[in-house]
Design a protein that fits this description.
This protein is mainly beta. The protein has 4 helices and 27 strands. An 8-stranded antiparallel beta barrel has the order 19-21-22-23-24-25-26-27. Strands 14, 15, 16, 17 and 18 form a 5-stranded antiparallel sheet that branches. The longest helix is centred in the first third of the chain and has 7 residues.
C-alpha cells in the first residue's frame, strides 16, 4: 500500500551508473534501432522487467522509436535489483534478418515460470501482435531464448493493437492468464484477459474464441469510467502486471484521470486486488487496494443501494462509462427507481451473480474502502458472458 520510487524517468544513472553512460552500455541496441522519424535516437528504454536467476538480477529492457517495429529487447545484469546494470546482451530484435513475413514489435518483455519450471517471455505490441518465447533455465544462456524459435509463437492477434502482455498462473483454477492492453495509452487504453491450460496457448476469451487467430479481444476488465457520486473519472487504465502475495492477486497498472471532456496527460500508478469468479475468470476490484480480504458475505448485508458502472463493451472506447443507482432488495430483485431491472443471487461464500437488463454478471462481493468517498462498504465485481465488466459500490445510508 506504500511505495517508494527509487528510479525515475530521465535518471538512468540510478540504474546504470554514470560511467559508462547507459547509451554506451546499450550500444548494440541503439545501432539496431537507429534514429526515429525526427532524426534522433530513442530517448529512453521502455517497459523493463526484472527477474532473479541464480542469485543475479536480470533486467529485460526494450528500445524502439515511436510507431516503428524496428525494435530490440536486451538484457542487462546486476548484483542488486537497483543496479548498477551492465553487460547488455541481445534477447530478440525485430525485424530478424532473413525472416520473411510481418515482424512483431520487440518491446514490452514479461517473464514467468510455468508450473513445470519452464521459463518463458511474452512480448510484442502493435504490428503483428503478442508473441511468446521459451528461455533457457540453466547454463551459459540462462534467461535467453532457446534456439530455432525465430520470433516465437503468436498468442494474441495484432490487428486490434494489444501490447504490454503479462502472463501468470493460478494453481487453484489450473489456468494461465494472459493480460494485455488495447487502445491508446493517452485516451482509451483498456485491460483485457484471456486464458489457457498451457503457457504458450492457445488463449481463449469467455466466448471461447482463440485470441491468437482472430480479431477477438478477450474479456474487458476495465475501460474509462466514472462513478456518479465520485469526485472524478478514471481513464486509460493499462499496461499492468500481476503480483501474488499471501494468496492475494494484485493488478499493478497505470491510469489517467478524466479532465473535462478529455483525459489528463499524466500516468499514475494504482494497485487493485484481482479476484476469480466461480467460473475461474479474473475480475478486478472497483477500488484501490486497502487491505481487504474475501470471506463469507451475509446475504442480509448485501441489501441496499449501489452505484453501478457497466463498462463499455469489448472494444476501444474513450467514452466514460458512467454509473447509475440500483437497489438490491430482500426478494432478490434488482430495482431502479422502484422498477425491477433484474435479480441478484448468492452462489457461494463470496461469489454472487447479478442480472441487470437480462445480462448476467458472475463475480465476487467483497468489503472495500472507497478512496473517493472515504468510507468502507461492500463492492461487487463481475463479468458477463460477452466479456463486459460490471462494478458496484454500496452506498452508505
Amino acid at each position: 500500500m506504500n511505495w517508494t520510487q527509487s528510479a525515475r524517468d530521465n535518471q538512468p544513472a540510478t540504474l546504470y551508473g554514470s560511467n559508462p553512460t547507459w547509451q554506451t552500455i546499450l550500444a548494440d541496441a541503439f545501432t539496431h534501432v537507429g534514429n526515429g522519424s525526427d532524426g534522433n535516437p530513442p530517448g529512453s528504454t521502455w517497459a523493463p522487467d526484472v527477474i532473479k536467476l541464480n542469485g543475479k538480477y536480470y533486467m529485460y529492457y526494450s528500445l524502439s522509436t515511436w510507431g516503428s517495429n524496428k525494435s530490440y529487447i536486451g538484457r542487462v545484469e546486476a548484483n542488486s535489483v537497483l543496479g548498477p546494470y551492465s553487460n547488455s546482451v541481445e534477447v530478440i530484435k525485430t525485424p530478424l534478418p532473413g525472416v520473411s513475413g510481418s515482424a512483431p514489435n520487440g518491446i514490452d518483455p514479461a517473464l514467468f515460470y510455468d508450473k513445470e519450471g519452464k521459463l518463458w517471455m511474452a512480448y510484442g505490441s502493435f504490428f503483428a501482435g503478442i508473441y511468446i518465447l521459451e528461455l533457457e533455465t540453466s547454463g551459459s544462456r540462462i534467461g535467453l531464448p532457446k534456439s530455432g524459435q525465430n520470433y516465437g509463437k503468436r498468442i494474441w492477434n495484432g490487428s486490434n493493437g494489444p501490447e504490454g502482455p503479462y502472463i501468470f498462473y493460478n494453481p487453484d483454477t489450473d489456468y494461465y492468464y494472459l493480460m494485455v492492453s488495447h487502445g491508446s495509452l493517452s485516451t482509451d487504453y483498456n485491460m483485457r484477459v484471456a486464458r489457457s491450460r498451457n503457457p504458450d496457448g492457445p488463449y481463449t476469451d469467455i466466448r471461447g474464441t482463440n485470441v491468437g487467430n482472430t480479431n477477438a479481444s478477450g474479456n474487458k476488465l476495465a475501460g474509462n469510467y466514472r462513478f456518479a457520486i465520485a469526485s472524478r473519472g478514471y481513464a486509460a487504465l493499462g499496461h499492468n502486471s500481476v503480483l501474488k502475495d499471501n494468496g492475494k492477486y494484485f493488478v499493478i497498472y497505470h491510469t489517467r484521470y478524466q479532465d473535462g471532456t478529455g483525459v489528463s496527460g499524466n500516468h499514475n500508478q494504482f494497485v487493485n486486488q484481482l479476484f476469480f469468479n466461480k467460473d475461474g475468470w479474473p475480475v478486478m476490484a472497483p477500488n484501490r487496494y486497502a487491505g481487504e480480504s474475501v470471506g463469507s458475505v451475509d446475504a442480509a448485508d448485501v441489501l441496499g443501494e449501489y452505484d453501478i458502472v457497466i463498462h463499455t463493451p469489448v472494444g476501444n472506447d474513450a467514452t466514460f462509462a458512467t454509473s447509475s443507482v440500483y437497489s438490491f432488495a430482500a426478494d432478490n430483485s434488482v430495482k431502479q427507481n422502484n422498477t425491477v431491472k433484474g435479480e441478484w443471487s448468492h452462489t457461494g461464500d463470496y461469489h454472487f451473480s447479478v442480472t441487470i437488463n437480462n445480462t448476467v454478471y458472475n463475480g465476487v462481493m467483497v468489503p472495500q474502502y472507497n478512496n473517493d468517498l472515504g468510507y468502507a462498504e461492500l463492492s461487487f465485481t463481475g463479468v458477463s458472458p460477452e466479456g463486459t465488466s460490471m462494478w458496484a459500490n454500496k452506498i452508505r445510508n
